[in-house]
Amino acid sequence: MKAAPRFLNRVVAAILSLLLTLVPAMAGDQAKLDDLFQRLLTADAAEAGRIESEIWIEWGKSGSPTLDLLLQRGNDAMAMGDAPAAIEHYTAIIDHDPEFTEAWNGRAIAYYSAGEIGPALADIGHVLTANPRHFGALTGLGIILEETGDETRALAAYRAAQAIHPHLDAVNEAIGRLEAKLEGQDL
């Protein structure tokens, strides 16, 4: 009977040790992202593109080679126009690690591509709850809202994306288009 508590103590100690080694890494990742987002606000267009790429790389790190492979397969399926296969890959990631936000974002895009607006919006909501700075999800939200005729809220979503990433050409164009439509043009 005494062996079981010792075994459990060792298991708990191992888990705590693992968690304590991950916390500084996660804090370092967050500090890196904070720095990237700060730099993004003042960058010129060329530098903003490089910073954006670095942000996407950070967001795409799952910490698991298996999940990274599934993410790549989902991305490849989307690149080939196979939204149903992409949905399956992203869902597999979410089943294994529901905290990995990029799987939710990828699946939102795949759902949208498949014409499944409700599930796409639900996944975008999950992404923005976990990561309010996700300019990609905000852009996707703006696109869906605009396409469904909710132009006022679409404009708000685009403006939120622009506040985070001022150099998104499609977002800036959408803001200009919707502002002119909703607020009129100066004579």
UniProtKB/TrEMBL annotation:
This is Uncharacterized protein. It comes from Fuscovulum blasticum DSM 2131. One of its GO terms (cellular component) is TRC complex. Pfam families: TPR_16. The lineage of its organism: Bacteria, Pseudomonadati, Pseudomonadota, Alphaproteobacteria, Rhodobacterales. The keyword Repeat applies. InterPro entries: SGT, TPR-like_helical_dom_sf, TPR_rpt. The keyword Signal applies. Residues 1-27 form the signal peptide. Gene3D superfamilies: Tetratricopeptide repeat domain. GO terms for biological process: post-translational protein targeting to endoplasmic reticulum membrane.
